[in-house]
Structures are given as C-alpha cells and as structure tokens.
Design brief:
241 residues; 3 strands; mainly alpha
Length: 241
C-alpha cells in the first residue's frame, strides 16, 4: 500500500475509532461574497435525505443530541506562528479536548507534515527549514492536505466540498432531522478534477480556519460524500448482515 493511500485510510480509521469511544465586518462581507461565488459555480443545497444519511453514517443516528464541539464549536485548523519553531504545527484549541477531535487533528497534521517535507506542489521560495514554513507555505500545505483527503476519498476521480451557507437554512427540523447549526446549511459542490477542487478549497480556506468553527465536520462530510453516500450505506449495512 502506498504512503498516500495509507495516510488517507488512517484518516478515515482514526475518525471511526475516535467516534466510537473579532472578525471585521469587511472580512465577513468578503466571506459572504466568496460563498456567493461558490454557489454561482454550480453547488447545490443539501436535501433532507442527504442530511439524515450523513448524520447517521457519521454519528450513528439522526435525530440525536447535538454536541456543538463536533459542529460550530470545533477546533479550527490554525497554525502556530510562521517561520518559527513548531511553525508546521496546528494549534490545539480549547475545542480539541475530545478524543475524536484530537485524533482527527493528528491525522490532518500528518498530511501537512508529509506535504511540507516531501510534496513539491506547494510553491517554495528559498526556505532552509521546511519545519519553519512561511505563512504562504502554511496556507498552501493546509489547502493541499484538505484537497488530498477529499480527492482520495473519491478514488482520485471525484470530490464533494461541503460549505455552509452563511445565511440560508436548506433543511428544516422534522421527525427525521434535528438541526445542528451546520448540516442543514450545507451547499454541496461536486468537482470532477483535482485542480477545480483545490481552487474552491483555497477560496474557502477561511471556513476551515475559524476557531472555534466547523472545520472538522466539513472535512468529514466532504470525505463521506466523495465516497458516494450509496457506497457508505451499502458498506455499513453489509457489516451488520
């Protein structure tokens, strides 16, 4: 098994093992504009059936009690200070105290380290120590790591990027679904080539760096949908036959 495939499998395994146990007004305005750009480029709102399936696949049941640490109050993917010792490392925030969030952060950190040390894709100006990356290197490494996880989950042929709409709720509460602050607001952007996926990840990287924020659940949902929800349901059912 190649290192890349193993790392991606490790990410998914870590998730399942762990689970079973001021922004300025101008900046906010730019974020909403970015979301409008994504919507204009072909994303579609989540449906109740997909929302329910996602929650059941990831958390085992829906409706269910909501832990905000898994949704809007999760840890952001924020680096330590650039060009300093431990500049390659993600900060561990107050929200990363749960075993599952700690495990996921470690898995993502592994991808980032691989990219900084071995991947030629991030553009590097003269940099004597990849473990003391510049700010631009940090951003590019994070963007590449997120893209890789989603793209490989789709067999390197397909990827779905889940992005919450800043104002619209697409799925109302019902007997089948209770709101969690993220799932019901998702726009789903399907990408059929890696460059397109990375472009939209880069344009919306701020969503993965909000701390606290929905970074981890967005990445998990994106990976699950990229593997096609039907495959996930079939796999889950076969294990219980």
């Amino acid at each position: 098994m190649s290192t890349d495939v193993k790392l991606n499998c490790d990410f998914i395994l870590v998730f399942h093992k762990g689970l079973m146990l001021g922004i300025r007004e101008r900046a906010a305005s730019r974020q909403i504009q970015h979301m409008a750009l994504v919507t204009a480029n072909g994303s579609k709102p989540i449906t109740e059936s997909i929302a329910v399936a996602l929650r059941r696949i990831v958390f085992g049941e829906c409706p269910a009690p909501i832990k905000t640490e898994y949704f809007m109050r999760g840890p952001g993917l924020v680096f330590r200070e650039a060009e300093r010792d431990l500049g390659y490392a993600l900060r561990v925030s107050h929200a990363a105290g749960l075993p599952i969030t700690n495990s996921l952060m470690m898995a993502i950190q592994t991808h980032i380290l691989r990219i900084l040390l071995f991947d030629v894709r991030p553009v590097r100006v003269y940099q004597p120590d990849p473990l003391k990356p510049s700010f631009s290197m940090q951003q590019e490494a994070l963007c590449t790591a997120i893209t890789d996880i989603i793209w490989k989950a789709g067999g390197s042929q397909y990827g779905v990027l889940c992005l919450p709409h800043p104002t619209h709720t697409h799925v109302e509460e019902s007997d089948l679904f209770n709101a969690d602050g993220v799932t019901e607001k998702l726009n789903l952007l399907e990408c059929h080539n890696r460059e397109e996926l990375q472009y939209f990840v880069r344009r919306n990287l701020f969503l993965f760096q909000q701390d606290p924020g929905p970074a981890l659940i967005l990445l998990i949902y994106s990976a699950v949908l990229s593997r096609r929800i039907e495959m996930q349901v079939s796999s889950h059912s076969s294990k219980h036959d």
